[in-house]
Amino acid sequence: MTNIYQPTPANLDLAAQAIKDGKLVSFPTDTVYGLGADVYNSSAVANIFKAKERPLFDPLISHIADIDFLKEYVETDDRAVALAKHFWPGPLTFVLKRKDNNPAVDLACAGLPSLAVRMPNHPVALELIRKSGVPIVAPSANRFKTISPTTAQHVYEDLQGKIPMILDGGAVTIGLESTIVDLTEEIPTILRPGFI
Known about the structure:
Elements: E1 3-5, H1 9-20, E2 25-28, E3 33-38, H2 42-52, E4 61-63, H3 70-73, H4 78-87, E5 92-97, E6 114-118, H5 123-132, E7 136-137, H6 152-159, E8 165-167, E9 179-182, E10 189-192
Helix pairs in contact: 1-5
């Protein structure tokens, strides 16, 4: 059964506990509604792929709530820090080398030696990440290869019965996925064009 909740402090606590318990929670970001799970819980991450009917070789984006955490999570350099300070929070995702070989995140990054990470510009997303205390992987909350959701109702229509909880933060402001920039090589490369 799938329920839609208003993002009250109590419901944000409930959603954060659901993330900690290995459940999936859909929430609004600045771009589209995401389908979130604890990046370190491989069983929860696997359920994202199952709910979305998404192939396992397609890596997921981790969402964080603090620029300073970037250095703890991935290998950074001056370029990444400068871009983060300029564009975050916002619709720009970086692909950076993994900080360690923690096997828990293998599924989220499709076994690659890199991670995709961004800091969304939405108060509900940021509060949920902070309360959960972990990076939250969150692809768009829709079945694979269908239109990305911009409202909680869109998520409900596409994923009802597959996920337990949707936080309704109203219609998102952008409605287009984030731009993805690969910073693992000397020359940055845009892997996916987006809002920026």
